[in-house]
Design brief:
Strand content: 15-25%
Oligomer: single chain
Structural class: alpha/beta
Number of strands: 8
């Protein structure tokens, strides 16, 4: 079955689940030749995106200008495909219109977002109507924007415990109320309900695990069956930090790493 992911442009991306291929069809009328070339360009970009996502390979290059020795994996592999396949080589990169090459960062993100929706669709189907637990953590990204990561933990039909990352959400602040609102909004997108939650795991920070005003308490107000467990990964982190603080060499090492990281963030924002 096909489904449509709308974009802000005048056209859309249609994902054909049967062939795992994404095509972009313009609403404006085009000649068949141009339409075929358009489809070849997009299909080639989709094939590359699928391979890079599967291998967790970076798309972009540090320098993608014409004079660059290596323009990044996406453009370089696209050029290689053009050399290996004459029909592709005739319609990509320099042989394509400047505003219709299907290689821009926005196009790459559109394609990746479509694959994301396909993966999430399968996760929600796998979960079905069963109960589940949520694991939530929040931190700043490299641009210092606050974001919240959400993971679903559940048991599949074979009795295997599964953990699936379903996305990260940018939040204005890390207060419990703001995080709770973001979770509600994320759940609404995938028709999930807090009533099906049977566990919640966070770190021990007051905004997460606070007895009265933490995220834990807000979720428990909606569902008393959502039992809270202090995240074991965060517990392990606390143990490691406590041990590292007792060892001078380790303490100085991480202190230097933290200092360098702050300088890198400062220089990146300059």
């Amino acid at each position: 079955m096909d489904f449509v992911v709308r974009t802000n442009e005048r056209d859309w991306l249609v994902i054909l689940a049967s062939t795992k291929t994404i095509y972009r069809f313009c609403l404006s009328k085009e000649k068949k030749k141009n339409s075929d070339e358009y489809r070849i360009r997009l299909s080639t970009s989709v094939i590359l995106a699928k391979a890079f996502l599967n291998g967790a390979i970076a798309f972009r290059g540090h320098d993608e200008s014409e004079t660059s020795i290596y323009k990044g994996h996406f453009l370089e592999f696209l050029r290689l495909l053009g050399e290996l396949n004459e029909s592709i080589g005739k319609v990509i990169l320099g042989n394509a219109p400047g505003n219709n090459q299907m290689t821009s960062p926005k196009i790459q993100k559109d394609i990746c977002n479509c694959f994301t929706q396909e993966v999430l669709k399968r996760i929600i189907e796998e979960l079905g109507d069963d109960v589940f637990s949520i694991l939530v953590d929040e931190s700043q990204d490299i641009s210092t924007k606050e974001q919240m990561a959400v993971v679903l933990r559940y048991v599949d039909k074979y009795g295997v415990v599964i953990e699936r990352f379903i996305g990260h959400v940018h939040v204005m602040e890390t207060s419990a109320a703001c995080l709770k609102s973001a979770i509600d909004e994320l759940f609404s997108q995938y028709n999930l309900s807090l009533a099906r939650v049977r566990g919640q795991g966070y770190d021990g920070a007051s905004n997460m695990a606070g007895e009265f005003n933490g995220l834990k308490a807000l979720v428990l107000n909606d569902n008393s069956s959502a039992y809270y467990i202090h995240c074991f990964a965060h517990q392990l982190q606390l143990v490691i930090v406590a041990l590292a603080n007792k060892h001078d060499d380790i303490f100085f090492f991480f202190d230097k790493v933290s200092t360098f990281q702050m300088w890198f963030v400062y220089l990146a924002n300059e």
